[in-house]
């Protein structure tokens, strides 16, 4: 396989395992580019990319922007705060206005699930979903699985537990799809109030006890507690959450094996994970960030190259 | 489909030996020179040149692999993106003399991309090009090789098929093929 079947990256759900493997192989080459003295290639020099962020982002936006610039694309940035969205402009109007400036690709984050799918039906540009509400965050799942592959050699056959706020997490859903497509076993672990009711129907194991989950897994992907999305109280206090679900060094040391610790960021240090774990040799959190640029370069390159 | 044999194993070996002698005339013991084989098939030729040079000079020669995919000028002008190959340049080329090696020189566009890709590893003092086959009168851009195994007058409709043992064939054969109309 030398190309993606789609012109948009809206989610992991509709990707084939072969397409994910193609993205990984391309990202391997871009990672090599990122380690050269000159970290730039001219592939996208005639492509303009709009980063349209209707929701806050630090890591993803920086990572996409860096990936675009490393590929020599022209980049424009848009964030909803301080824009005409506040004056009542619709999503489609906003994006069509941006596209009227001859933009080829749109990287979009939006608080509403399905917003990029809606756009893809109405505009010609390639669309990359950079997170749509609690639905999907495909590039995060790709970089997470790419990082597992890099650290452990292969994703297939690995046991991966996703810990924390599964209910509000787009990272969790995309990760479940990606891990299963690549042949990993997936478990989710967290307080019952933060696990979607029918999550088991996706074929994942469900565990409420963090110790049992860690004893089972090879890799633990620890999610952030998304206080900004929680419209009601799902647990009594952060201190209590940390006590029952926080991962600290004592807990890891008490296991009879070494596991890999991941976190998509931003970390609430001392809540879901302690500093000594986040900064330990078990953690591949900064590798995830580094790989994020290579994965996004691969996605941009492969989508831009699919010319109809 | 008509095909004409350009190289068999024996002729290929003789040609590589001649090219290596020519390289030594200009590069001495290769202490300031490195070789970059162009992916995908130039690397096999580069390895054969390395082996021959090492047996003549009795010292290790630095050889890297250079992939030009991300530097090509036909991205978004073909249906789908080309799949990149590995780039492996485990040395600095700053102030070195670089010999680029490829199997066939045709339009010159791959070499242009290679010159571009190469500069991401530093600024060499001099760059030369070695090719096994020079398809004359086919250039799109002004690129010429310094060392040529064989010059062949070809038409655009013809293609050169390179079969080397490293690619899994039983013996080395290089053919000029007339594509059916």
TrEMBL record, chain A:
The keyword Ubl conjugation does not apply. The keyword S-adenosyl-L-methionine does not apply. Its EC number is 2.1.3.2. InterPro entries: Asp/Orn_carbamoyltranf_P-bd, Asp/Orn_carbamoylTrfase, Asp/Orn_carbamoylTrfase_sf, Asp_carbamoyltransf, Asp_carbamoyltransf_Asp/Orn-bd. Heterododecamer (2C3:3R2) of six catalytic PyrB chains organized as two trimers (C3), and six regulatory PyrI chains organized as three dimers (R2). Pathway: Pyrimidine metabolism; UMP biosynthesis via de novo pathway; (S)-dihydroorotate from bicarbonate: step 2/3. It catalyses: carbamoyl phosphate + L-aspartate = N-carbamoyl-L-aspartate + phosphate + H(+). GO terms for biological process: 'de novo' pyrimidine nucleobase biosynthetic process; 'de novo' UMP biosynthetic process; amino acid metabolic process. It holds the Pfam family OTCace_N. Gene3D superfamilies: Aspartate/ornithine carbamoyltransferase (3.40.50.1370). Belongs to the aspartate/ornithine carbamoyltransferase superfamily. ATCase family. GO terms for molecular function: amino acid binding; aspartate carbamoyltransferase activity. PROSITE patterns: CARBAMOYLTRANSFERASE (PS00097). Residues 7-150 form the Aspartate/ornithine carbamoyltransferase carbamoyl-P binding domain. Carbamoyl phosphate binds at residues 59-60, 109, 137, 140, 265-266. This is Aspartate carbamoyltransferase. It comes from Marinoscillum furvescens DSM 4134. L-aspartate binds at residues 87, 170, 224. Residues 157-303 form the Aspartate/ornithine carbamoyltransferase Asp/Orn-binding domain. Keywords: Pyrimidine biosynthesis, Transferase. Catalyzes the condensation of carbamoyl phosphate and aspartate to form carbamoyl aspartate and inorganic phosphate, the committed step in the de novo pyrimidine nucleotide biosynthesis pathway.
UniProtKB/TrEMBL annotation, chain B:
PANTHER family: BIFUNCTIONAL PROTEIN PYRR. Keywords: Glycosyltransferase, Transferase. Pfam families: Pribosyltran. It comes from the Bacteria. One of its GO terms (molecular function) is glycosyltransferase activity. Residues 11-166 form the Phosphoribosyltransferase domain. It comes from Marinoscillum furvescens DSM 4134. This is Pyrimidine operon attenuation protein/uracil phosphoribosyltransferase.
């Amino acid at each position: 396989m030398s190309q993606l079947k789609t012109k948009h990256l809206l989610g992991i759900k509709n990707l084939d395992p072969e397409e994910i493997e193609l993205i990984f192989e391309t990202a391997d080459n871009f990672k090599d580019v990122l380690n050269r003295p000159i970290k730039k290639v001219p592939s996208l020099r005639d492509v303009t990319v709009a980063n349209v962020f209707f929701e806050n982002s630090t890591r993803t936006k920086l990572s996409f922007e860096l990936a675009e610039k490393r590929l020599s694309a022209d980049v424009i940035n848009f964030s909803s705060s301080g824009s005409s969205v506040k004056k009542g402009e619709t999503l489609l109007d906003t994006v069509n206005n941006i596209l009227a400036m001859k933009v080829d690709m749109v990287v979009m984050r939006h608080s509403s699930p399905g917003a990029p799918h809606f756009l893809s039906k109405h505009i010609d540009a390639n669309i990359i979903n950079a997170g749509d509400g609690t639905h999907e965050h495909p590039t995060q799942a790709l970089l997470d699985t790419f990082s597992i592959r890099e650290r452990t050699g292969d994703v297939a056959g690995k046991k991966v537990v996703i810990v924390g706020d599964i209910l509000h997490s787009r990272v969790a859903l995309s990760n479940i799809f990606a891990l299963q497509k690549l042949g990993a076993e997936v478990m989710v672990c967290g307080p019952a109030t933060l696990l979607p009711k029918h999550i088991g129907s996706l074929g994942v194991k469900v565990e409420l006890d963090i110790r049992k989950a860690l004893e089972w897994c090879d890799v633990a992907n620890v999610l952030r507690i998304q206080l900004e999305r929680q419209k009601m109280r799902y647990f009594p206090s952060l201190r209590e959450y940390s006590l029952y679900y926080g991962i600290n060094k004592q807990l890891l040391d008490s296991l009879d094996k070494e596991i890999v610790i991941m976190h998509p960021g931003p970390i609430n240090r001392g809540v879901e994970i302690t500093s000594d774990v986040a900064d330990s040799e078990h953690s591949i959190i900064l590798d995830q960030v580094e790989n994020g640029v290579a994965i996004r370069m691969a996605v941009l390159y492969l989508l831009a190259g699919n010319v109809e | 489909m008509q095909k004409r044999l350009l190289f068999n194993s024996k002729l290929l070996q003789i040609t590589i030996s001649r090219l290596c002698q020519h390289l030594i005339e200009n590069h001495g013991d290769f202490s300031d020179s490195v070789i970059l084989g162009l992916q995908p098939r130039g690397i096999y030729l580069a390895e054969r040149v390395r082996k021959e040079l090492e047996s003549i000079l009795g010292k290790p020669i630095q050889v890297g692999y250079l992939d030009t995919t991300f530097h090509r000028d036909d991205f978004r002008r073909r249906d789908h993106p080309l799949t990149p190959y590995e780039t492996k340049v485990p040395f600095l080329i700053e102030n070195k003399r670089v010999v680029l090696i490829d199997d066939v020189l045709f339009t010159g566009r791959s070499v242009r991309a290679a010159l571009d890709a190469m500069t991401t590893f530093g600024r060499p003092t001099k760059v030369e090009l070695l090719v096994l086959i020079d398809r004359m009168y086919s250039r799109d851009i002004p690129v010429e090789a310094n060392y040529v195994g064989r010059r062949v007058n070809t038409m655009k409709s013809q293609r050169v098929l390179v079969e080397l043992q490293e690619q899994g064939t039983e013996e080395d054969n290089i053919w000029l093929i007339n594509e059916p109309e």
